[in-house]
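Blackboard transcription, Thursday session:
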Amino acid sequence: MKLSEIKDTYRKLFVVEKSPEEKNKPKDLKKDLKDFWYGKPHEERNLGKLYVDGTGLYKHREWRGVKDTMYYFNMIWLYNYAHMVTDIMKYGGEGPKSLVDFAKGTFRYRWMGQTYLSVMHWFDRGLEGMRGDALAASAWHYRGMVSETIRQFMCMFASDKKLHGGKTPERWNKNIAHNETVSGNIFYPFRKELEDVALEMIPYFVSVHVNNHTVLNYIDAAQSIGLPADPCPMCQAEYGLFVLDDYPDYAPTMVTSNEACDGSVATSVLQDWFLNRPLYAMPQPMRYDDPLVQEHCQKEIEGCWKFIEEQYGVKFDWDEYVKWAKSFNKLTEFEWEKWDVAANTKYYPINGVAQALYRIYYSQDGDRPIWHEMDEHVKRIMNKTVKNKIETFPKTRHRAIAWSCAPLYYSNWCTWAYNCWGINCVINMDSLMFDQYLRTDTYEHALEDLSCFNEKAPMRAMAVGGHEHILSLFDYMERFNCDMVIMYDQLQCKGMQGIHGVFEDEFRKRNIHAIWVPHALPDKRTVSRKEIRRIINDYMTTVMRETPLDPSLLDFDDDQSW
Amino acid sequence: MNKLTKIIFKILGIFAAIYGILFAVFYFDLDGKFLFYIWEPMMVKRFDNMKRKDNTLTPYSSKENVSEDF
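(Written on the board underneath:)
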């Protein structure tokens, strides 16, 4: 390599280019010191200039002032890297020996080896530009998700026949595999003896948020065996895992679902074929307001419980159910508290992406100790911001609600939108699902609530669950004091596509500012992140006639980014 | 300065150096650059060339009902 090439590479990877105006600006030592100590004011940050072109990497990570940079370095970057190692050892069940299973999994599964090691960049993208309490509280949500992800994949690896030369590890017989859209709550009665781990949540769903490169292999694999390309790409990716033989074999049975749509029915059928083992398909009704449907849904859940009893020889344990359900209710109570603060104050310390992902993750996954631990941290911070009236997102120009299913490959769009335009996404549809308290006084009440909980799953209630639920957007918009809607337009979701025109009419009739954001869930090739930003930029400049807070974020290339 | 103090300072120095190196890795996003330019291409190559079982050869066998109620 020539010296000039080394210089060019160095400039490309490390040097933040200055504009001629910046270069010609007279030195102001006092201001420089202030910027060093407190960080630059929002309008002078030029966050877009920190990127290595095309990659989303940073020439250097953002200097947020001494306090916040050191917080990020010590309490987020170092803390999480260190805790990832301890989590691997803890959840692998064999201490330091678990690192061997982790290494085996890393070199066996694409979704692990290619994806999860870049997890700190997931933090970076979601927490870009955040300061103080908003930075801390949002980061705790990320920490919870990372820990729970490790728990799940370590459980898979420790029980995986494929990683143990085809032999059956002891834990294999104690696991229930289930579709990621079957709620973890269903399995509470058996948690004393069995472990429930969603099959696609880690290999597919969470992986897309962390690194969206991997999933494209699974989508292409599904289409390569002649399956159509137009159903939901989530379902395609889920069965693509099986076509590529990239799923861990960690459980003797499988519980599947039709949630969210017909595409998931296909996933269930294909999984039945590929897995070739006892499988229970537990459908969730679409028009669940009909009382007759409730009885059917409850019978399906009881059928699932019976299936588990028969397959594993374990008994339904009511006390165990009560214990976990009561504990889960505490998470729900805190969620309501959070919504109250988000809706009625300026002191809510969690950014849009952390709110959305954490809520959808824990409510789908079910009760786990890590969620309570994280909620304690967040509660402490939120109590402080409310008590001291700390405005956590001071540059807010618009309070937005995001509706419908989000682009998984660009879930951090809201961090960008706040930094660039002051659009603060205070709540989103995925957060508002699963809004169901689980009664534990009688078996009948428990079953009733559990079936309702199941029916309020992501992409079900407010996406394909009937227009009265889909249009509840306007009620929530009012309750959360929002003045703008970010309307996700999942191009391959037939349910939501069918009601597109109704929304258009309603937005016009109610004179609501709504920005349609087209995307294809996990597949960034259909609508790129850059295109999403362009659409928002166009609306903000032409309709709202506003100027950006940070113009460097208007247009940049991150096509190859994770 | 006695021997113990020297050892303490030496340990503190080592910790400070490690801390400084880690901060440089963090600040210049060296972890991201390593994963993006070196680790990921290596993994892509590995997984692209990995021999995999052809799951489409799984027979379309019909299983018995798993529960008598359904």
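Lecturer's comment: Chain B touches chain A through 31 residues (CB under 8 Å).
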